[in-house]
Amino acid sequence: MGRPRLPIGTYGQIGFRTEACGRISAHTRYRDWDGRARLVQATGPSKAAAERALKKKLAERSLFQPTPGSLGPDSPFPELVDYWLEDLDLEGRLSPTTRQLYERNMRTLVMPAFRHLTLREIGVARCDHFLKQLAKRSYNRAKQARVVLRLALGLAVRHEILPRNPMDHVARLHRAPHTPNALTPTEVNAVRAAIAYWEVGRSVPGPKPDGQLGAIVEVMLGTSARIGEVLALRRRDLDVTGAPPTIRINGTIVSRAGKPTARQDHPKTAKSLRTVAIPSFTAEAVRKRLTRLHDPSPDALLFCSRGGTPLTTNNVRRQLRNVLQLAGIQDVTPHMFRRTVATVVNERAGVDLAAELLGHTDPKITIQHYIRRNEMVNPATAELLDRFLARDD
């Protein structure tokens, strides 16, 4: 039988020899992280000095080692988080917005509960309890925390720091049943009236509104586009003279920490890249807005500040909320217009067309999150029952 192999990351017996120059050489075989044993040696003026130099060299050796030498099962959780974020940057697959969102969710949702734990102390029971407690306050926050915690611990498993990912065995999160909220035609017109009243300057003192808010709402109602996609529209994306007039949705507005708000040259997903035929009320709003644009270039934004810079989605949301509150209208958000469009199209043409208009890859997303359920059963049931179950006098 051959000599037994050394465990990976360890070395064998240390040998010594005297060099021609009189210095002492210490040497041993070290089994590297690729499984191969290599000769490692160091010299010193004495046997003890040579041995110390060799051991220092062995301690610093990290050839082919897949994880940082200091990261192990007893490492604090924050060290794994830093390593995970560095790994995300090395992969470079995430958009800057998603990368920023992951870090924010990890720092604000997960770290407060796991900051003082080592990786070895993070098990299934602890993760399961953490998610259930968080879900009591907010299902969405628990869902976001689950994503980043699974990714970070998954990296620890792939790099052989942990033997398994405890997140693989936690209980499923259960969301309370809910029905997507959409506006009725009467409510839509009430919103339009409130914005129109505000835009002529009758509701509050101060600078006269520039008319953009009403046009933004009409574009959202006519395209089902997200607020960021609407604010990213340029002259080159509009065709209001065609039959039918169309809008090309091919970008979005992003606001990243420490950077100015800017237009991103692609929307949220590949399916979100689409050309939408617009109704007459949207085409009219776009034409009016174009007459007020001073920048004739094809890349000029349809909706922008006085200096031509992009509007932020948060500012538009805030402005819409304030204007509607003046009219006594509560709880209307830009995304509610998107759900309203989905509900109208679904009721009159089916869910597949609604999903296509919204840019969804799966109609299940449209049904679950965007379409308000119609509680009215088909009245044909009354005719059927009258026909077959009528009283026989």
UniProtKB/TrEMBL annotation:
Give the top-rank taxon of the lineage listed in the UniProt record for this protein.
Answer: Bacteria
Q: Which PROSITE patterns match?
A: CB, TYR_RECOMBINASE
**Chain ranges of the Tyr recombinase domain:** 178-386
> Where is each Core-binding (CB) domain found?
75-157
Which GO biological process annotations does it have? DNA integration; DNA recombination
Pfam families recorded: Phage_int_SAM_3, Phage_integrase
Record keywords: DNA integration, DNA recombination, DNA-binding
Q: Does the record's keyword annotation contain Nucleotide-binding? A: no
SUPFAM superfamilies in UniProt: DNA breaking-rejoining enzymes
Molecular function via GO:
DNA binding
Q: Which InterPro entries match?
A: CB, DNA_brk_join_enz, Integrase-like_cat_sf, Integrase_catalytic, Integrase_recombinase_N, Integrase_SAM-like_N, Tyrosine_recombinase_XerCD
Family listed: Belongs to the 'phage' integrase family.
Name this protein carries in UniProt: Site-specific integrase
